[in-house]
Amino acid sequence: MSCSFDLSHYREILEAARAGGYRFAQFGEAPERGDLFLRHDVDLSPDAALTMAALEAKLDVRATYLLMTQSVFYNLASREGVEAVSRLHELGHQVGLHAVYPDADLDDRFEPVVAWHNPDPEYMTAPIPGAVNVMEERYFSPATYRSDSNQRWRSGCPHEELRAGGFPWLQLLVHPEIWVYPGATMGQTMRALVEAESARRLEQLAQDRIDLT
Ligand SMILES: [Zn+2]
Ligand SMILES: [Zn+2]
User: Fold this and answer.
1) Most CB within 10 Å of its CB: which of 18, 106, 113, 204?
2) Residues with Cβ within 5 Å of ion ligand 1?
3) If you compute the radius of gyration of the chain from its CA atoms, what whole number of angstroms results?
4) How many helices (H) and strands (E) does the chain have?
């Protein structure tokens, strides 16, 4: 099995987790043996999130999508953003806030689950009143945490350990953009995303009655 960052290997990771006896858990429940907290921080593209969410729903997998209200890259208040939130709910996923410190304003679009975007160590694991911080002590310890940040598994791709039931429980952070867009490195993948975005921007401009002739 080659550990590429694409949807076909993502599917293999999910199937490995199922074979290893893991159950897809939601933040808010205390971690128990066999729980897999599948977390998606949506940094760049709600579109990529929806592609991943649809694949998961097909496999009967429930994940937690954390969306930004202060993103430089997308507008959650746009029609597209509003539709993304409702589609994620329809597909059975938990939707929380990917917040920019110190603003954790939860409104009725979100369940009370917060992940800070690019957190500093000073507040990363601090409890948040009225909400779950996904990095608070009960959900976060290095042995039960894996992340694909910058298209690199620091302790290796987790599929083998999942298949073997090697983690007592696991929080798995997966960024949808990395798996949906092609590229062997983060730099390549981000360039592919930017290219797709540029085509999308031209369509949006045309829809906005901008003359592109
Ligand atoms: Zn792998
Ligand atoms: Zn982030």
Assistant:
1) 113
2) 3, 157, 159
3) 17
4) 7, 8
- The CA 206 to ligand 2 mean position distance, Å, reads 30
Residue 33, CA distances (Å) to 16, 146, 169 in order: 16, 16, 5
CA of 12 to the centre of ligand 1 (A): 8
Distance (Å, whole) CA 86 – CA 89: 5
pLDDT tens track of the chain, all 213 residues?
Answer: 789 999 999 999 999 999 999 999 999 989 999 999 999 999 999 999 999 999 999 999 999 999 999 999 999 999 999 999 999 999 999 999 999 999 999 999 999 999 999 999 999 999 999 999 999 999 999 999 999 999 999 899 999 999 999 999 999 999 999 999 999 999 999 999 999 999 999 999 999 999 999
The token duo for 71 is: 């993103």
pTM comes to: 0.97
